[in-house]
Amino acid sequence: MIKLQKLPEVVDYLYKFQSELGFVHMHLALPREENKHLYIEKTKPGGKLTFAQNQVIENRVFTEQIKISIELPDGSIWVAVPMFTKGKLLGAIILSFNQVAPIAETTAWLEQHSEGLALAVEHTLHCEILEKQLREKSMQLVVMNALTSEKDYGQMFLTITAAINNMINCDLLTIPAFSPKTGFVLSGYNAMRQNGGFTLISREEMLEMLGLDLETYRQSAFSQLEIYSRPHIFTAEEYSELSRKLIVSNRFATVMGVKEALFVPIALPNDAFATLIVCSKKENSFFSKDLRILIELAKQITHQIGRLLTFEQKEVLEIKLRRENTLLIQELNQEQAFSEIIGRSPAIKKVLENVHRVAPTDSTVLLQGETGTGKELIARAIHNMSNRKNRPLIKVNCAALPAQLIESELFGHEKGAFTGATERRIGKFELANGGTIFLDEIGELPLELQSKLLRVLQEYEIERVGGKQTIQLDIRVIAATNRNLYQEAILDKFRMDLYYRISTFPFVLPPLRERREDIPLLVRSFIEKYSRKIGKGIEGVTPQMMDFLLHHSWPGNIRELEHVIEQAVILASGPQLDIVPAFTASASMATQKDIPRSLPVYLPQESANLTEIEDGFLESQRQHILKILEETGGRIRGRFGAAQRLGLKPTTLEARMKKLGIRKNFSSE
């Protein structure tokens, strides 16, 4: 008996006689499940395989189980010689000839050696079946070890994917879950073949790649729920038909190139179930044995897959609850922003006009103003008037963040990322996803963190500390400072590129001394607030006190005024407030030097509209770039070039110069 270990070796053995037998093309066909055939074939050098030509003869030899010979319209002659072992059809050797070939001699040779060939094929099949069984057991062992010992759920899923791929060649593996109570949950566990290996794809990345939102994905899946609830092989033809009626399958086909898929449901508690979906970008990829392997695997891993999905749902729920809790606390502790902005002066009216104009956009806003001018109120007003008003507004006081924990606070961290990181933490940016993040006192951020913040604002994506997964963000950024960031950037105390990034729409909040006509309105509001809080019936202030309030310089602005009124209400013994001695003593010592210096001239405090603000800002950029170019002798690139001084890439600076009308010889057009 010919002793061979692999079916292709049988074909190689027969090809040794190709010159004597004179055939053009030969393959070994074996009957398999669902009337599919396993083809083991080879051509002579320069030959080309064509399945369509021998389809008729294959069907006949397996049906009639006798030697078949037919001539096709192209002039080729095809001969199929069946092989039997113990009276049972094992397979067939199929040859093609040209018209001058010794067909009779060749077929006689095959019939003479058919018994030996059949025994060789049978032995080889047994070897391959045994090897596949060992591989299947190995796969099950790898999967079980991963499910019981791997602590990182993402890595666990990748290990499972690699083990399945070792048995069933695939390009994509995903596990959507269905629950009658909570509805459809798009799993965050998706693995895709990339660069020769498998990469974990997050739920958000998967939706973005498919061009779908979560609700559309859910509706599409529920419209054909029975498809996900039964084991099935979707062949190329069936998957093409499925993609015509199911938008999810359509996107998998058109965007990711999926041609075939295996669906295997996994039962979960409370009538819920998940579906293990294995996809291939090639046709004729899956057989009944593959479906059987996954069904058996699904029975063994039901409990662990349930734990994996429960962990994922818990994580999603925790993030959702944190966001909702943050929003609820803000709503409980703070009234609607616009109702808190009090004033009728021209200065405050122009601020509110700008708020009305910029709020509906997603543009980044920079609020500059002295301490106590109400920057947080304006930020809240912008958020509440935007399309994001039903999503969270997350406030970050950059000055109050501990230096060693500031990155973790902003971007979050993974469990074990550093000493003390005993669990995963969601950062402020991730909490604000879908809503607005307010970066108060942004000028206090360390320079090393400013570069990371710049990347976030450019790419709108973050990575948790100690994490490898990129998280896409959909946020609106509002920054605030009481510093002159433009001057700080010139002095290299603040990154110039970050300054330009956050200054998409800058404006200044006027200090209280420039809107004195609003003081009586503010006083009345604070009296009502603290009279109600303390339980006193205060009706107003004495003329002497109002006169003093109107003429004070207010270096602490509205916050200082509020504290004065609160103190006066506490000390009041009658229906009207009088001057607080402690306040007048401190006020008399205040000098002009206590008043913060004015902010950059390109941010006009009296600007009437957005055009004036934008024009002023562009003119300031133009003048500053011209100044730096003059100092560098017109040099843009290099260690001491203008690009390095400005904290910009040379190409970015050149593009900005072109936009601002600055020639490379640094003259203004």
Automatic annotation (TrEMBL):
Domain Sigma-54 factor interaction: from-to ranges: 341-570
SUPFAM superfamilies according to UniProt: GAF domain-like, Homeodomain-like, P-loop containing nucleoside triphosphate hydrolases
Name this polypeptide is given: Sigma 54-interacting transcriptional regulator
Annotated keywords: ATP-binding, DNA-binding, Nucleotide-binding, Transcription, Transcription regulation
InterPro entries linked: AAA+_ATPase, AAA_lid_NorR, GAF-like_dom_sf, Homeodomain-like_sf, P-loop_NTPase, Sigma_54_int, Sigma_54_int_dom_ATP-bd_1, Sigma_54_int_dom_ATP-bd_2
Membrane-traversing stretches: none
PANTHER family linked to this entry: DNA-BINDING TRANSCRIPTIONAL ACTIVATOR HYFR-RELATED (PTHR32071:SF123), TRANSCRIPTIONAL REGULATORY PROTEIN (PTHR32071)
